[in-house]
Design goal:
six-stranded mixed beta sheet; four-stranded antiparallel beta sheet; 8 helices; 12 strands
Length: 437
Amino acid sequence: MSPLWPCVLVSATGILAAAIPGSRGSVLYNLTTQLLQQYHKEVRPVHNWAEATTVYLDLLVHTVLDVDVQNQKLKTIVWYHEVWNDEFLSWNSSKFDEIKEISLPLSAIWAPDIIINEFVDIERSPDLPYVYINSSGTIKNSKPIQVVSACSLQTYAFPFDVQNCSFTFNSILHTVEDIDLGLLRHREDVKHDKMAFFNDSEWEILAVSSMYNVLHVATGDFAQIQFNVVIRRCPLTYVVSLLIPSIFLMLVDLGSFYLPPNCRARIVFKTNVLVGYTVFRVNMSDEVPRSAGSISLIGIFFTVCMALLVLSLSKSIMLIRFLLSERSSGQKQPLRCLQGCVDVDGSRIDPGAQRAGVTAFPIYQDHWVQSGTLKEIWFQLRSINNHLQTQEQVDQQKVAWLALLYRFDQLLFRSYLAILGLYTITLCCLWAQWSGW
């Protein structure tokens, strides 16, 4: 019998060695089986049904994908965290080999029905089927979500605009007596946390403020937590491609006022500037966001400048037209002394008839010639006087119109200067306000 004892000892040692590595896995399996064996995920996990389940929320903005001003939509990627306590999923870690935390399928346990009120499209997120549960029953659920939410976007201060969009979380069915909400972190920590933000896009995050309130509706009172995400646009690209060229174009148009108002080259110059305005406006419409609720400041100033340009061009065209009509009307009344002899009543006398009359009456030839010559000189002087008076009236009218149009041109010039100065001051104020955030 003695030779068999070593074999028995070796066999027993091998069995114990094989059992030890799998002991922890067996404990985890037994713990999971024990937790889910009598678990009902359809029931809110509290022993006292009158006690509310508090869900603690946290939000981290990762990046801004798109800001759709025309449709008033914001597309972002956020990290969403929620923590709650499940009283049916707690255990004594000392009885289970000091296991203090395990992972369970989310589909196997009760989960709160928390939604984002502002969502306007299907929320897309990676399929993360597991959640962590510790021995006290605290469940941690974290996941990234692509959120397409409604937001009131204002473009008045473009490209120095700052947008404030909210994400409101609440239970879709349970009132505050069943599910209450709370912040996982302190408000100041949430507000100034920018570590998770991917700051390599057109937008940068400024702050994420949070607020708790209770919504009172006819169906009951619902707990809400609202995260206000404040973002601002990075304007450098638009300053280089829009603002600086627009100011240059306005300065070129401003220089056209130094040309005389009655100069035809001014019409050609302003027409070319108007074509430049139109082309720039078409290109700008592709870059400036369009919204039915608000108009960008740069679009308003650009439209006003185009209106002043068209008004100045119309004034120059009317002036040239007036001067040409006055010149043509003055050329239609030549000197009457060049039209031959005239009678006392102003009618023209045929020289042939005059010579025939002289030949028919030789007695009065000398007397008639003298009186005819005096009358001819008299009526020629009267014709010259009338022509000079008419020309003087035309010149006076021309000078009056020119003075009026010069004053109108000065008014347009000063208005243009005032608008350009106001435009520059407003942009500087918007830039200073944008930098002050």
